[in-house]
Amino acid sequence: MAMKQAANRIAERKQRDKQARRAQIISAARRIAENEGWSNVTVRRLSDEISYSQPVLYTHFGSREGILTAVAIEGFKEMGLALEKARKRGKRAGTVESVAAAYLEFAASSPAMYEVMFSLSLSVPFGDSATPPELRFAFSQLLELFEGQSSTPEVTTELFWASLHGIAELTRTRRFPRSRQKERLRTLVELFNFPAEETAQVEKVR
User: Fold this and answer.
1) Is the separation of the CB atoms in 96 and 142 below 8 Å?
2) CA-based nearest residue to 137, from 68, 67, 78, 66
3) Looking at the chain, which terminus has fewer C-beta neighbours within 10 angstroms, N or C?
4) Which residues contact 45 (CB under 8 A, 6 or more apart)?
5) How far apart are the C-alpha atoms of 191 and 187, rounded to whole Å?
6) Which of 19, 43, 62 is the last residue in one of the domains?
7) 34-47: pLDDT as tens digits
């Protein structure tokens, strides 16, 4: 019995150590990207940065893309939590605006993270059975805004997300001047705030 308990403790410690190394690698990748860009996030550079051998990094993630994918998934988790907080904080009439503002703030405050989530060629599945739960959670926070508000809430959510992403990305790449961001947000909210009578009609159909 005592030997089994000791073996369990050893296994638990190894698992904690593995999780800590994984978190350290992801954190280092984010730090390098924020300061120098994703092109400088290489397995060799990470190995030098955190004093782990390259084989250790490959054991955890398999490849450089595996590391970037892990960072992207962590980003979706953080975005989902930010959107959830904004959705629950917003008053009924202002929930769409609160969530939209939180989305754009996340993109603006974490440009390197947003880039790896959406702009790099990673094989993270969207919209199918293999989609990571972190992505599903983030999307669900947008979907909550339109459940009962639209006869096609998934499509409405996709269009809302596409609009937010377009604004975020065009602002990040300086195609949109930041000076008109409040005006864009206000106009977007007007487009996606459904009148009460329209919402009532959707509920009646259901």
Assistant:
1) no
2) 78
3) N
4) 32
5) 6
6) 62
7) 999 999 999 999 99
